[in-house]
Amino acid sequence: MKNLIVANWKMNPVSQEEAKNLFNDIKQRIESATAEVVICPPFVYLPVLKGLTLGAQNCFYEDKGTFTGKISAPMLKDIGVEYVIIGHSEIRKMGETDEKINKRIKSALRAGLKPILCVGENYEQKEKGETETVLKNQLAGALSGVKDAENLTVAYEPVWAISGGDPYKTKELPTAEKVGKTHSYIRNLLADMYSKEFADNIRIIYGGSSNAGNAEDYLKNGKVQGFLVGGASLKPDDFSKIVKLAE
């Protein structure tokens, strides 16, 4: 199974021209890459970017209807999108619930998209020793009633390690060994929910200020199967280095 490197551009850049230039720069640098690479730009740029696998940053949980401003999974599938990020911590922080995440996962799978489910604890939960409880509850809530989840990827993103996500400004990142143990815990939870065979075939990737400087450590000592990359995905040189390390 190839490592998966996902670029989450968030609400960047601010123009179509910049988006095309960034995309083409990345594409040129990783054209011979053997790792699987997915670019997740803002919705408006998805139709104009060609040549790499595309993902969306979210999707609505209904296929169509009177839902002003929403983008459905079938719409994304129709324009060639393959992946979709669901449950990102920035969305959770704005009131996203496990119930809605669950509905989005089901909608994405129905449409033939590959969901990237984000889970992770915040600083207070970490300090209280609640990481495992939080992860168990998030996975149970997001995957309740989800039977055919072979196309699922789980992204562990400790909120306190995300750039701009730590109100305490600790500048702390989890060690590779800690990430490895957490990923093993997530895999065991998936085995309990589905089966060991299922869990062994699900990619678990890491998000949380991953960059060219720490990627090798997380890959070698944390045994992660890829990254959900935020800020570094807007820097073609840094992002391409992460991709090459993941090979």
Residues in helices, as a percent range: 25-40%
Secondary-structure element pattern, one letter each: EHEEHEHHEHHEHHEHEH
Q: Could you name the CATH class?
A: Alpha Beta
Give the N-to-C terminal Cα separation. 11 Å
Task: Tell the overall outline.
Answer: globular
Instruction: Let me know the average pLDDT.
Output: 95
Commentary on this structure:
The chain is α/β, with parallel strands linked by helices and about 250 residues long. The chain has one domain (about 5-245): Aldolase class I (TIM Barrel, Alpha-Beta Barrel). About 40% of the residues lie in helices and about 15% in strands. It has ten helices and eight strands. Strands 1-2-3-4-5-6-7-8 form an eight-stranded parallel beta barrel, surrounded by five helices. β1 (about 5-10), α1 and β2 form a beta-alpha-beta unit. α6 (about 130-140) crosses α7 (about 175-195) and α7 packs across α9. It is globular, with a radius of gyration of 17 Å. The mean pLDDT is about 95.
